Amino acid sequence: MIRLKRIVKYFHKGSVNEVFALNNIDLHLDAGDFVTVIGSNGAGKSTLQNCIAGGFFPDSGKIFISGQDVTGWPEFRRAGLISRVFQNPLLGTCPSATIEQNMALAILRGRTRGLARGVKSRDRDRFRDELQQLGLGLENRLLDKVGLLSGGQRQALTMLMATMIKPEVLLLDEHIAALDPKTAGQILGLTQEIVKGRKLTTLMITHNMKHAISLGNRLLMLHQGRVLLDLRGRDKENLTVKDLLEQFYTAQGEELVTDSLLLG
Amino acid sequence: MTLYAALGAVEHGMVYGIMVIGVYLTFRILDFPDLTVDGSLPLGAAISAVAITGGVNPYLSLLLALAGGFIAGMVTAILNTKFKILHLLASILTMIALYSINIRIMSGPNVALLGVNTVFDAVTGLGIPAHYAGLLIFGTFAGLVLGFIIWFMGTEIGQAILATGDNPQMIRSLGVNTDAVIILGVGLSNGLVALSGALVAQNQGAADVGMGIGTIVAGLASVIIGETVFGCQTMARAFIAALLGSIVYRLAIALALGLEFGGFRFNPSDLNLITAILVIGALITPNLKKRLIAR
């Protein structure tokens, strides 16, 4: 479904600020995989998603989505295959446009836009139905500007907009981290519902180890631009937060050992 | 202010209102402060004047002017999006380049439109007096442009323009090439500005290379006055407000120029000062209102 082959990315290459952001990443997600991604700050989680989405081009390596080589495609061209939800609820929607305008923008994801009406009356019923599933009462507020909504409402709307046209891959970048605990829980529930219901291949970044363990069928741990752990099936089901931390430190420790051996 | 002066101000407000609609598109919707307009207004005038004196139909000359302005806007937008030059700087570069280009087009600093057909002849030919002809023609064009832009902003492409100014990251991830949208939007904006310049030239009987000076200031002043006075809750209302703002701006200027305090009178050269004060007034009014209400 999605395959990364030996992806390498440096930032500020050749300067004192050089960062080795992605270090030979090899990754294959099967259709329907729901993968959680954890790792410390600067581990390369967001960089990995950005690389898949086309925010930048890798220095070397190839990216395939549904068998197509998209390595050289700009971000807007990949949009037909990829949906994203960001940590910042303000990034996913257009504040000065209405709810229905935002949804109308979203159902044209990856398609050529022409001179037809931006919001078509025949789509309104569908918008209302979809909004009703959120249970936030937004179905009665189609003409309200999105800037009037709360962060949680906007993030719920973003989740909906990201999935109204089924993407090949759904990228979630800490999409509940900026919300209060109750809202975060609601959005997380909604995420599970949508991902399961529509059988979406998903890559979800989180800092919450519990969520990383309880959600999805596969868990990746990144560290310094590499995949440190890749657990699935039984290994993941039996995982506890304590195990995960231990594994993390062990893996890190081993790395330190090998590094010091090499350097020594 | 005499009735004649007031009619003249409304007339100017409508023809420059077409320019203001263009400025609203870049300045407010695309969030792209664009100074190209100081060059594209006389560009439109120059193209139209040279075309008409060369025997081209005056209506066709308007289309040529529109196309010329569109290209000028595209140049600015390409400098910005493809070559990463700051939008303000990119537009200044195009603007000064246009100064030379306009003189080249006119083979001199101005072209007179005496004894040639203009778009006004169709109306004056019906026996309508010249000052009403201006009102009628400008009103028609301003209305057409207003209708077009409101329709266009409601289309799929128009909505993509709106989103590009509002949240470029979001609309890119929905598959819109934001560079192309900015090039289209800034092009369209300058096309309208050039159209406005072409109509002005046909009305005043000459195109002049200096007629664009201060276009952006007048445009911003009108936009801000329009927003303050008429509001901008919906897209359609915002564009109507921009056009009405232009009329109010011209009326205010005419009013100020007609004022007399004892022996003191404003000169036409005081126009820039008056404009600055008007804009400052329009900018601080909402703030002052809030403070007064808070007390």
Descriptive labels:
heterodimer; A: 264 residues; alpha/beta; 6-stranded mixed sheet; 4-stranded antiparallel sheet; 9 helices; B: 295 residues; two-stranded antiparallel sheet
Helical segment count of chain A: 9
Largest interface here, residues on each chain?
A-B, 34 and 22 residues
Provide mean pLDDT of chain B, rounded: 92
Helix share, percent of chain A: 25-40%
Q: How many helical stretches of chain B? A: 12
Description:
- The complex is a heterodimer of chains A (264) and B (295).
- By secondary structure, chain A is of the alpha/beta class.
- Chain A contains nine helices and ten strands.
- In chain A, the strands form two sheets. In chain A, strands 6-7-8-3-9-10 form a six-stranded mixed β-sheet, with helices on both faces. A four-stranded antiparallel β-sheet of chain A has the order 2-1-4-5, with helices on one face.
- In chain A, helix 3 packs parallel to helix 5 (151-163) and helix 5 packs parallel to helix 6.
- The radius of gyration of chain A is 20 Å and the shape is globular.
- Chain A starts with a strand and ends with a helix.
- The model of chain A has no long low-confidence stretch (mean pLDDT 88).
- Chain B is mainly alpha-helical and 295 residues long.
- Chain B has twelve helices and four strands; from the N terminus they run H-H-H-H-E-H-H-H-H-H-E-H-H-E-E-H.
- In chain B, strands 1-2 form a two-stranded antiparallel ribbon. A two-stranded antiparallel ribbon of chain B has the order 3-4.
- In chain B, helix 1 packs antiparallel against helix 9 (178-204) and helix 11 (235-258) packs across helix 12.
- Chain B is globular, with a radius of gyration of 19 Å.
- The two termini of chain B are 37 Å apart.
- The mean pLDDT of chain B is 92.
- The interface between A and B is medium-sized, with 34 and 22 residues.
